[in-house]
Amino acid sequence: MRKTLLTAAAAAFILSTGSAGFALAQNAAADQASDASKTAKAEASDAKKAASTAKSKAKKASSKAKKATDKAAEASKAATDAKTQAATK
Asked: What is the per-residue pLDDT across 25-69, written as a single tens digit (0 to 9) for each?
């Protein structure tokens, strides 16, 4: 009887230790997944900010190009008008 109780106690200890180890492994895996999720969210946020910055810079460059084109068109028109006036005098 004593040997049976001792064996049962040893088996219970081994099973409980194994279960605790499994629970710790699950917690570690959950923590690792949580950290990976946080990292992915931070990287996505950084990418979104970079895309927004690039879009803003492209919009500004487009605006500057349009202004330069408009000025060139005005200068060309002024030159044509000056040439026409010079020819009529």
From this structure: 677 788 888 889 999 999 999 999 999 999 999 999 999 999 999
| 3-state DSSP assignment of residue 37 | helix
Distance CA 7, CA 19 (A): 18
Sort 82 into a burial class: Cβ within 10 Å, 0-12 / 13-18 / 19+: exposed
Q: Give the domain extent around 47.
A: 1-89
Task: Give the whole-angstrom CA distance, residue 5 versus residue 11.
Answer: 10
Q: For 9-26, what is the mean pLDDT?
A: 62
> How many domains does the chain divide into?
1
Residue 7, pLDDT above cutoff 90: no
Find where tokens 């570690």 sit: 28
Amino acid in position 5 = L
